[in-house]
Amino acid sequence: MGNAFPGFIIGLWHNDRLFRFSTYAGAHTRVLEIGVDRVRWELENRSHTLEMIAYRAQGGLLKAPTPSGMDRRIAETLDARVAVRLSQRSVRGSHILFEEEGRNAGLEAAGDLDRLRKMLFHGK
Q1: What is the band of 111 on the pLDDT scale with cuts at 50, 70, 90?
Q2: What sign does the dihedral 107-40-82-59 (CA atoms) show?
Q3: Is the pLDDT of residue 38 over 80?
Q4: Residue 98 and residue 12 in contact, taking contact as beta carbons nearer than 8 Å
């Protein structure tokens, strides 16, 4: 419809609790670095910080939509490695609640990534 916004919905289930990070609930991106070999994304909500680093792996080219059909190819993998850290913030500092690394993660970083960064950090 001609409009775009950088929205996300992320949930992390840990110790029988769902930690939510979403734009509609006020979470925001602190860091987004998209490089050749990794993607680093840090988010904050009112009380927690979620840090993720996904390391790219060899993947396949999948068909992706364009206005005229499924005319482009996007590199995707299900063999990425991802490091995740969830921290709780307080007036006394930060306390790590969860920190693990997973394998066989899905990873796709495609599209106009410079535009995404501008929208996230400058609202344009």
Answers
A1: low
A2: positive
A3: yes
A4: yes
Instruction: Give the residue ranges of DSSP H helices in the chain.
Output: 113-122
Residue 3 in any domain: the answer is no
CA distances (Å), origin 107, targets 28, 37, 68, 96: 20, 11, 25, 25
**pLDDT at site 61:** 67
Tokens of 46: 């009112």
Question: How many domains in the chain?
Answer: 1
**End-to-end Cα, the chain, rounded Å:** 17
Residue 68 belongs to domain spanning:
11-122
Within-domain flag for 87: yes
Q: Give the integer Cα–Cα distance in Å for 91 and 73.
A: 47
Question: Is 108 part of a structural domain of the chain?
Answer: yes
Paired with 55 in beta bridges are: 38, 81
